[in-house]
């Protein structure tokens, strides 16, 4: 009996702590059954109103509450709930697009004219600096700036964070670490810095920069670029050994060099991005006796040109193609170089060279691309027919057809790899392999073009030669010599295979000459052979057929000369001319003559050859559908 009060009390506690489930009452979908004061009943869910038995309607919080979302906000009712959104010109204090009133969020004004108010902007800078000052690690500081500037920037934000970066520049060069970890930390800091600066100058920010006046735009952009130069130099000086560091983002690229006086003779600081090139040349000294080190930092800005224009509306200016004499424009990308040496006289400049491309590019680029693609596709089909012809028709087999066959095979493979892989530059390793294959197959094609010229010269001169010996040497020259050139080039500069734009040889350090050099030599040899062959053929035709007019002789030789031009690869001279003096004319001549080279080879070697016509006639003469067209 003494336990009875205790059991009753314990039962009461259980009833309070654990809600009891209803057993006999059915409620509406937007209501639930609860036991209150010992009785079962239906009660509407939160966000609904009614008696819970016959009605439970959605509670319109937006209509029933006075200023449910506060000032400068719109309320949107949803089933069982609601949300608030700030009106244009305001943003939520929590930086969330949707919010409810009970979380303390309010709408604050986005002052679009704050950048014109020095007091406003100074207060914003001080507030941001106060927030960031406790961060002492360079990488963490840059990550904080990056996180706050990655999207939804305002003019005030741009000005504020540029000032923050300028104020923090000395801190970025401070590395509190052991010597062994300094290099890795410097690499991380430089990479993070490039990402952060890229946030402020990428094309997506132009609409924000456009809200600034021309003078303010130029002032703050110049300050950002100056800060970038100073910061990258300070960070680069922390390297403990000779280093070359590269970092790339969508619109900013960095190339930093650090070296001591002993390596100065062997370091040639330069930068090449998308055809824009800069190289510096230090003064030559008789001896580098003084100990010291130097840091060189190149910064490339892809899209900042329009930001420096004198137009009040840079968005309209960047889309305009007319040249107004009253407007100032930067019509290229921007490259800067900064140098620091200790002692200051250790690394002094003698000269600087640079090449910058027009920001609009060549208008005919798309047309040339389409011509190239169409020409290569047609050439591949024609070369495939040539290979089949020279390989399987036994009646025409000779030294000459063997050379034709190998030339067509190498040209087919080169153009196939070009068509499939020239633009696959997303993977660096794969792009380098494509560039290496193109280098080899095009050199092999040139080698067999050279063999074509040598063989024709031997025929015209009438030299008697050993066929087996000649074939062996032809194969050695046609396949081994390109392999030697590619192998030697790859061993010296494998990193120059593949560029940021296309999978081809880089122009850095004149590496492209590992292809242009051998190609020009072969073109020169073939031009000499071409001239001699045409001269001999013309003399022979005039002597054998004295009754034929000079005009007929010239026309006959011209047909043969045209065939030889494509067979010997002499049309590639247009490519050399385009490299020496680029113009629209040379671009079109080179593209048309070489994209369709396979088609021209097919026409001159197969279609116009009487022997091959007879072979195809024998092949198809029993096919009813083809007999009529071959008669």
From TrEMBL:
GO molecular function: calcium ion binding; G protein-coupled receptor activity
GO CC annotations, alphabetized: plasma membrane
InterPro entries the UniProt entry points to: AGRL2-4_GAIN_subdom_A (IPR032471), EGF (IPR000742), EGF-like_Ca-bd_dom (IPR001881), EGF-type_Asp/Asn_hydroxyl_site (IPR000152), EGF_Ca-bd_CS (IPR018097), GPCR_2-like_7TM (IPR017981), GPCR_2_secretin-like (IPR000832), GPCR_2_secretin-like_CS (IPR017983)
Subcellular location: Cell membrane
Matching Gene3D superfamilies: Laminin, Rhodopsin 7-helix transmembrane proteins
Record-annotated EGF-like domain positions: 58-96
Keywords: Calcium, Cell membrane, Disulfide bond, EGF-like domain, Glycoprotein, Membrane, Repeat, Signal, Transmembrane, Transmembrane helix
Family of this protein: Belongs to the G-protein coupled receptor 2 family. Adhesion G-protein coupled receptor (ADGR) subfamily.
Protein name from the UniProt record: Adhesion G protein-coupled receptor L4
Originating organism: Equus asinus
Gene that encodes the chain: ADGRL4
